[in-house]
Specification:
The protein is globular. The chain is an alpha+beta fold. The protein contains five helices and six strands. Strands 1, 2, 3, 4, 5 and 6 form a six-stranded antiparallel sheet that branches. The protein has one domain. Strand 5 and strand 6 form a beta hairpin. 30% of the residues are buried.
């Protein structure tokens, strides 16, 4: 299922700025002065923050990723730099409705591992789901298509 993405409006950008400010040490597509710097695709927005090994291991395990010898968990644990990256966008769900969905990646050294997707009827709802997962109280979706169609959280 292809998702129809929408450009963020001024209010959306203000909410992104607040979301970035709410994560300690985070940075993203809207700087602290409120200036939006679009990526190559202006529909795709992003937020990043550094994470501890403990936080990354918890997110890794809570997402259901493999932890055995063939997984990248050992490489992540021995990595010198770790961060969490959320790429997100606004999607059209019906004629007059939209939702927010995003992908969560764990980054370490020069690797990225996708751990799941978040979603919500509003940005606030999407970030709530991410915070709940980050705190160990929630789960991620398997894809943005599932996140955008899951009516229980929209």
């Amino acid at each position: 299922m292809a998702l129809r993405t929408l450009l963020p409006n001024r209010r959306d950008l203000s909410e992104i700025e607040l979301a970035i400010a709410s994560f300690p040490g985070a940075w993203g597509c809207v700087n602290p002065l409120g200036k939006f710097t679009p990526s190559i695709n202006p529909h795709v927005l992003w937020l990043m923050f550094d994470a501890s090994e403990e936080q990354m291991v918890r997110m890794w395990k809570n997402s259901g990723l493999a932890t055995g010898d063939s997984s990248s968990l050992a490489a992540m644990r021995s990595g010198s730099h770790r961060n969490v990256c959320v790429t997100f966008f606004k999607v059209r769900t019906s004629l007059f409705r939209s939702a927010w969905v995003g992908n969560v990646d764990l980054g370490f050294d020069h690797q990225r591992v996708y751990i799941g997707s978040i979603g919500g009827r509003t940005q606030v709802a999407m970030w709530r789901q991410f915070r709940n997962f980050n705190d160990g109280d929630g789960a991620l979706f398997d894809s943005t298509a599932i996140a955008s169609s899951e009516r229980s959280h929209l």
